[in-house]
Task: structure prediction
Amino acid sequence: MNAVRIIREMAVVGMLALMNGCASMSPGPAPGDNQQFAATMPEPPRPPERNNGAIYQVSNSMRLFSDQRAHRVGDILTVVLNESTTAKKSADTTTARDTSMDVSNPSLLGGDVVYNGKPLLGVGINSKNSFKGQGDSSQSNQMQGVIAVTVAQVLSNGNLVVQGEKWVALNQGREYIRVRGIVRPADITPRDTVLSTQVANAEISYGGRGVVNDANRPGWLTQFIQAWWPL
Result:
């Protein structure tokens, strides 16, 4: 019996150690692991045109008055993050039902059908049931900051598909912000900035990796036990 008890204790200790170690097995995303948010390089320059002997040459021209706002593939655009969402939902349901039925004892051949003085065919049914449910749900999110992204594609209507990510190394981990979406050139300010609320089909994600992030997330074995045991 002592041997069985020791084996059980060792199994429990081993399982706890495994559960503790599993919490840090998932390192999370890393810089550059998602090409949807990778920086886009500008298109290679065109080869210089042949010198035709004139004073003005296209290959040596300079734009003195040009729009500095992002409009080509590879251009940099600054997205000002100003996201704030609030959602609230409540539900209240009440139902009730009351059923009653009474059938008196019928007579047979002019007399009641009884046994030992008790009616045999009389029926009486009373049923009551009720239900009441109430639920409330609320959620609030806020994100502020700036991130520089690059133009990945210029659509046929002139809109820009932008994408980019920012990684910040902290004491015990790394935090990242990722942005991807479609920007209308008219929404870009002269300072080459655009509000995140003006980015169409926006995909904005915030997360991190490191000791703090791993400590706030249970391991896969813990999640499995919580989900499937006991059934």
Remarks:
- Strands lie at 76-103, 107-108, 111-112, 114-115, 118-119, 123-154, 160-170, 173-183, 193-195, 200-210.
